[in-house]
Design a protein that fits this description.
heterodimer; A: 303 residues; mainly alpha; 15 helices; 73% helix; B: 411 residues; MetI-like fold
């Protein structure tokens, strides 16, 4: 501590300590802990807080698993179902994104000339900086009942009546895929960029087939990038709110929309907090899983 | 060899499709901003118009659809967003910088823990950051008992700044860490040896060195704040930012005004990216020239000294831009020729639509009359008639049982 003060001088040391403790304690740790605490509290009006009714309870978690006590179902098939669907689809979208982006990342990193690569990267960045809502809106225009795709299909006589893409959730899944595809490309590209081209040439000279080269050389080299891309895409997809708001059909829910409902429409904050904790713990488990599978450190995932 | 050629072509096609997928929706959305129809579409093209950028329109059924320039909610949201963006930049950049500096100074074991904690917010779902901030501050506000804490805890802009700072600081942190890794610490030592104190070292050496990183983290922090929805929607409480306004608009029904807004944002992004890229290229070029000169100076053999290529080279991209402009002008001319631009065209389509609408109205009224005749024997004419003329078909609400439960059941 003394060393720290000596090194930075009194003024700068104070600034560093204040800024960091404000961030870590006040913005990161305390809010999360308080939300965790709140998720075990009953939903009572603010006046009763701290009173005899304000005891720790598991009601909200019970509600998530088994539904309200009056319903005869053995488990809360609505909420658990939404949760399961959300995770399943998030995993699927992550895998699809990985397959989509792998060739592109490889092309930019290793095949294209430096100038082309640069141009491609810049043009990848542009859609990335456009609001997620607006990108979803662009897809909404395409997929709407009287939207672009339906009109084109009708014009060419491929279909007789418009297809309701939004009710079929095609629009939602495409939107989620579209929204985070770039977060898969950049980590993959960064990882592949460091691969020595000579290794690829050596593999080719030694008679390895292209597929084998990829499995033996490129993928092992890029595993940190793959882990990072998959984690980011999964987390963002599972936690997405903007895209489902714009593109989901009225009877499909994304898990974040459930949380939103408990918070803003039903005014049951503790329950919303409990559902958030569920989502958060799944996210943490997923990150740990990725770290374990790909044997990477957490620092390699976030760059 | 032949199979490789085929593979290359396939890869090319794939990349083309990929970029079409990436840009196609955005391009189509941009085009719909110029269509005068009130549903954003390309194929039933009505008229080329700029109304969605200006005043919007009063639809033929009396509904007002605001355009970009007249939508006050959008303007208010924009101002709130700018305020929040500024606040986030002012908080997140110093925090990120301090965290990056401390990371270089802590011991290795603490280092991993500190690093993990610092990057955690990026891995949290955005909704959760928003929620946790709101619940905490709601508690603080209730405990504050009407003082400053209560005021702040109920202030959506303040909460949003805090919530966004939580994870945007991490972005800044990562940028600074990357820059600090290349920092030459001997500079600091030299300055200290020459008698500077630590504060001077910080302001005279470290800050100038970090300046490019500070600039880019300011830009990134602002953009990230500006486009954030997931966190903001919770923490903004009763206020509105640009993104929440857009979201509520989209949920209510989609209008080409949003397309025009998107186009404006796309153009701004495009300009910023191009400027940034040009600056970077120029810097690279300079660096290369300096390196080359240093190399030339070392080379004694004059044969290896190449003459500098003189003369002005026209960048190829200009041809692309020229081509685009020509196509635009040509297309616009064609549209004017066909009478698809201007007030006459809009008037014509409006008229047609109005007549369509009138036809439909007539049909509805006719239906209503028939229905009235049928139910007139029940003698009940007061308010029911009004409902009939609105809904046309009285059977529509037969089983509704709401306001016209007085209707005699027909069976």
């Amino acid at each position: 501590m003394k060393y720290f003060f000596n090194k930075n001088g009194p003024l700068i040391s104070t600034y560093l300590i204040i800024a960091i403790s404000f961030w870590l304690v006040f913005l990161i740790i305390i809010p999360q802990l308080y939300m965790f605490d709140l998720s075990f509290r009953p939903n009572i009006p603010p006046l009763l807080r701290g009173g005899p009714d304000d005891v720790y309870t598991l009601t909200h978690y019970k509600h998530f698993l088994f539904g309200s006590e009056t319903s005869g179902e053995s488990y809360n098939y609505v909420d658990v179902g939404v949760f399961k669907d959300t995770l399943l689809i998030a995993v699927l979208i992550t895998l699809i994104n990985l397959c989509f982006c792998y060739p592109i990342a490889f092309y930019i990193a290793k095949v294209a000339s430096p100038n082309t690569a640069r141009l491609l990267i810049v043009s990848l960045i542009i859609p990335f900086w456009i609001n997620e809502l607006l990108r979803s809106f662009a897809l909404r225009i395409l997929f709407a009942g009287e939207g672009f795709i339906n009109n084109v299909l009708l014009k060419f006589g491929l279909i007789d009546t418009g297809i309701n893409f939004i009710a079929m959730d095609v629009a939602l899944y495409t939107g989620l895929n579209y929204a985070y595809i770039l977060l898969m490309i950049f980590p993959l590209y960064n990882a592949m960029d460091t691969l020595d081209k000579n290794q690829l040439e050596a593999a080719e000279d030694l008679g390895s087939s292209m597929l084998k080269t990829h499995f033996r050389i490129v993928i092992p080299h890029a595993k940190a990038g793959i882990a990072s891309g998959c984690t980011m895409v999964f987390m963002l997809t599972a936690g997405a709110l903007a895209t489902p708001v714009v593109l989901s059909s009225p009877n499909t829910f994304w898990f974040t929309q459930l949380i939103y409902q408990w918070f803003n429409m039903n005014d049951n904050w503790p329950r919303g907090a409990a559902y958030s904790v569920v989502l958060l713990s799944v996210s943490v488990v997923f990150v740990l899983l990725m770290m374990k599978i790909f044997k990477v450190k957490i620092g390699e995932i976030v760059r | 060899m032949k199979s490789q050629q085929a593979l290359k072509i396939l890869l090319g096609i794939y990349i083309f499709i990929f970029f079409a997928y990436l840009f196609g929706p955005l391009v189509i959305m941009s085009i719909t901003a110029f269509n005068s129809a009130e549903f954003p579409s390309v194929t039933p093209w009505e008229c080329f118009s700029l109304r969605w950028f200006n005043e919007g329109k009063i639809a033929y059924d009396g509904q007002h659809l605001a355009g970009l320039a007249t939508d006050w909610r959008l303007h208010e949201g924009l101002i709130t967003s700018l305020k929040i963006g500024l606040g986030v930049v002012l908080l997140a950049v110093p925090i990120g910088l301090s965290a990056a500096l401390v990371l270089t100074q802590v011991h290795s074991r603490l280092r991993t823990a500190f690093y993990s904690l610092s990057i955690m917010p990026v891995l949290f779902p955005g909704v959760i950051i928003g929620i946790s901030t709101v619940v905490l501050w709601d508690r603080i506000a209730t405990m504050g008992g009407g003082g400053l804490a209560t005021e702040l805890g109920r202030n959506g802009v303040f909460l949003t700044i805090l919530a966004q700072t939580c994870f945007i600081s991490t972005y800044c942190f990562l940028i600074f860490v990357a820059r600090l890794q290349r920092f030459d610490q001997t500079q600091e030592e030299a300055a200290l040896d020459l008698g500077a104190n630590q504060t001077q070292v910080f302001f005279k050496i470290l800050i100038p060195y970090m300046m490019p990183a500070i600039a880019s983290s300011c830009v990134i922090a602002f953009l990230a704040s500006f486009e954030n929805y997931n966190t903001t929607v919770f923490s903004i409480l009763s206020d509105q930012t640009l993104t929440t306004v857009i979201a509520s608009k989209v949920r209510l029904g989609i209008s080409p005004a949003i397309s025009s807004l998107a186009l404006v944002i796309i153009l701004i992004t495009l300009t910023v990216t191009i400027i940034y890229e040009v600056l970077r290229r120029r810097e690279d070029k300079k660096k290369k020239e300096i390196e080359a000169e240093a190399l030339f100076a070392q080379t004694l053999d004059s044969r290896l000294k190449k003459a500098k290529p003189n003369g002005f080279k026209i960048p190829k991209s200009i041809f692309g831009i020229l081509f685009f402009v020509v196509v635009c002008i040509f297309g616009f001319n064609k549209m004017v020729e066909k009478g698809m631009y201007g007030s006459t065209c809009i008037a014509a389509t409006e008229k047609e639509k109005k007549s369509n609408f009138a036809d439909q109205l007539k049909l509805l009224q006719k239906n209503a009359e028939i229905a009235n005749q049928r139910s007139s024997e029940s003698g009940d004419v007061g308010e029911k008639k009004e409902f009939d003329s609105i809904f046309g078909d009285p059977n529509l609400f037969k089983d509704f049982g709401g306001f016209d439960s007085k209707t005699p059941k027909e069976d």
